[in-house]
Design a protein that fits this description.
About 15% of the residues lie in helices and about 30% in strands. It has 4 domains: about 170 residues, no CATH class; about 210 residues, no CATH class; about 100 residues, no CATH class; about 130 residues, no CATH class. It is of the alpha+beta class. Helix 4 runs parallel beside helix 6 and helix 4 runs antiparallel to helix 7.
């Protein structure tokens, strides 16, 4: 269910004013503009994720927060929208950040995030108004925008939905920003014009849909539709044909390109003309791409808009379509010839081939051998759907289509699509990768995840090498780490949030490691896997030293771990803690900090030139800052877990806790 902001604006304004939450008379929160922002119409980079770059600024969601947290404007820190300048990011000044939108950006469609067009950022945030019982319905989502200089944020919304997992995209067509969203409870796909306020139902009654997974800015959505049988409409529903249809719609559509006359065969015989529900409702503003009608149909329907003759269909019973994936400007789908319904072939539909003048929805269908009636638009990918699935990654190179997938033997395989749906080449680029999830392709590397400790571990490998390159005995993989699976240290990223993102020279992720608290961290991305492996080796040296010290000096091991996370030893200057350590423990701590030696431990290996790798920030760092409560909790937790304290302090802390409870 959804309701537009304009329809209930008066009620919202009255409620907002009664609560004293509006800072202006036109429904906006206002504040002083942030320094350094220059207005521009330049395109943003990486729209639709949790990090977006616009000009010299990086905008990011400050960690994974729960949607039920306090979303009062001005209170949010974790889960808010922050920014950092390109200069500060390059200099490692990761705390030099500003809050742009002090509200939660926690929509649970993790295929879509923040979007920047012009001088505004568009997003979704939990509702902040109260219902009649006085309860804030935070499971509702409000879609809105804010200025990039932080000076203005909508206090009302474009659209409100009751499901915080609602799939959505903000897209721009001819300078106008549209909100594409799916009302799954009503099986409707909507497009909201943020300029005019018009909320258009693009389609009602879809079976399945696909947004472009590789381009969140794409304004196109594909969907399948059932075809109602003639003379079966009654009490608001009709029986459906065994075949179905494939359609596509654009966010800018306001009317159907076709006329559907439903006066003959699609009216309820129990009702009279003029009665509500008398004629079947059919809302569809899309373009018909493929029509599964078979040649055994002698009486067509208003929905078969390209029907000319029975001879056009290559199947007596017709076809059914199922969506696989929409990516890189092509739709992957299965086509089942209902004359041989046990066979579902996978096809690739070239998006650019299907324009507004497309009329080949019937003739483009394949024959029983799998050959399409329009090979330039619809090409055969595979004769089974075992490998070419939604979890595979697809790309084009030198005019050929390839896809990567995890095979039944736990190897990541690369398939070059050949003629007639046969594999022209299959290369195993990484073996023994059980449980891998393929994430994305970037700069020649496949990024993928494996199970981690608290979340997912991140790996990568070059995917575009020759078959011989992946032979670890005779190929490039023998001494070139680009052709070997290489892990990103022991990073654990939040598996219930956005996947890590790479922009420019940086990798951003929500840190699910111990003490990470799912805030966003930044890693200077290695240019090659050899560089990444060298960093891995240095990281392992630190972890191995922790383990070695722990075998003989457990308290010292925790002390140096504390320094690794915090980056200073101030707490050990406090007598209440320092007095609890043996002299050897403190000597080891001092040697670790200076990258020296003590009691047989050589920490000098952690220093190369002027760079010391004895702190976490030598590898990756938190971006932005924690809320005051989270910062205090982390400081207390680190001391409690890793620093010795006096019995008096412990007893005092316990007593305070009992009193507070």
């Amino acid at each position: 269910m959804q309701k537009t902001g304009k329809k209930i604006l008066l009620a919202l304004l009255a409620l907002a004013l009664s609560l004293g939450v509006l800072a202006g008379c036109n429904g906006a929160y206002r504040s002083d503009p942030l320094d350094g922002y220059t207005p521009s119409e330049n395109a943003a980079e990486s729209n639709g994720g949790f990090v977006v770059k616009k000009d010299e600024w990086y905008y990011f969601i400050n960690g994974a927060e729960d949607y039920s947290a306090d979303n009062t404007y001005g209170n949010a820190v974790k889960g808010s929208l922050m920014r950092i300048s390109e200069t500060d990011l390059a200099a490692g000044n990761y705390g030099e950040t500003d809050i742009v939108v002090p509200q939660l950006i926690v929509a649970q469609d993790y295929t879509s995030g923040i979007y920047i067009y012009g001088d505004y950022v568009y997003y979704a945030t939990p509702n902040t108004t109260r219902n009649m019982e006085g309860t804030i319905e935070s499971s509702y989502l409000d879609f809105k925008r804010s200025k990039l200089d932080g000076s203005e944020t909508m206090s009302n919304y474009y659209v409100q939905v009751s499901d915080n997992t609602t799939a959505y995209r903000y897209v721009q067509v001819d300078g106008t920003v549209y909100l594409l969203y799916v009302d799954s409870s009503a099986t409707e796909i909507h497009s909201y014009n943020t300029v005019t306020g018009a909320n258009t139902v693009l389609v009602s009654g879809y079976t399945d849909y696909e947004f472009d997974t590789s381009d969140p800015e794409s304004s196109t959505v594909y969907y399948t539709m059932p075809v109602a049988k003639k003379n079966t409409y009654s009490s608001g529903s009709a029986q459906n044909e065994s075949y179905n249809q494939l359609w596509k719609a654009d966010a800018s559509a306001t009317a159907s390109p076709y006329t559907f006359d439903l006066s003959d065969g699609y009216t309820d015989p129990a009702l009279s003309e003029g009665d509500e529900g008398y004629e079947m409702e059919y809302v569809n503003l899309g373009t018909l791409v493929l029509d599964g009608i078979g040649s055994n149909k002698t009486d067509t329907s208003p929905f078969n808009v390209h029907w000319k003759s029975r001879e056009d269909s290559k199947s007596a019973s017709g076809f059914s379509y199922a969506l696989v994936k929409y990516t890189e400007g092509r739709l992957l789908l299965t086509v089942t010839n209902l004359d041989a319904s046990d066979s579902a072939f996978v096809y690739s539909l070239n998006d650019s081939s299907v324009g507004s003048d497309w009329t080949q929805s019937i003739t483009a269908n394949p024959d029983l051998s799998g050959t399409s009636g329009n090979a330039s638009a619809l090409s055969l990918v595979a004769v089974t759907s075992d490998a070419a699935t939604s979890s595979a990654l697809y790309y084009e190179q030198d005019g050929s289509l390839y896809y990567l997938y995890l095979n039944a033997d736990s190897a990541i395989a690369r398939v070059k699509v050949g003629e007639n749906g046969q594999d022209a080449e299959t290369v195993l680029i990484a073996k023994q990768q059980g449980g891998a999830t393929l994430l994305y392709l970037k700069d020649g590397y496949l990024y993928y995840s494996m199970s981690g400790t608290n979340g997912n571990a991140l790996w990568r490998i070059r995917y575009d090498g020759a078959a011989e390159d992946y032979n670890i005995f005779t190929g490039a993989a023998y001494d070139n780490d680009d052709y070997k699976p290489t892990q990103y240290l022991q990073i654990d990223y939040n598996s219930s949030w956005y996947a890590p993102e790479t922009i420019g020279d940086y990798l951003f992720f929500s840190n699910a490691e111990e003490y990470g608290d799912n805030y966003v961290y930044v890693f200077r991305n290695a240019g090659t896997n050899a560089e990444l492996k060298a960093l891995n080796d240095r990281y392992e040296e630190v972890q191995d030293l922790f383990t070695s010290v722990e075998k003989q000096f457990a308290d010292a091991a925790n002390a140096i771990r504390y320094y690794y996370y915090v980056g200073n030893d101030d707490v050990f200057g406090e007598e209440v803690h320092r007095s609890e350590y043996q002299a050897e423990d403190l000597e080891i701590l001092e040697a670790y900090i200076s990258c020296g030696s003590a009691h047989g431990f050589a920490f000098s290996v952690l220093k190369e030139g002027d760079v010391a790798c004895n702190v976490q920030t030598a590898f990756y760092s938190r971006l932005g800052y924690r809320s005051e409560t989270d910062a205090e909790d982390l400081a207390d937790t680190l001391v409690a877990d890793l620093v010795l304290g006096s019995e008096e302090e412990t007893a005092s802390s316990d007593s305070s806790g009992d009193t507070a409870a």
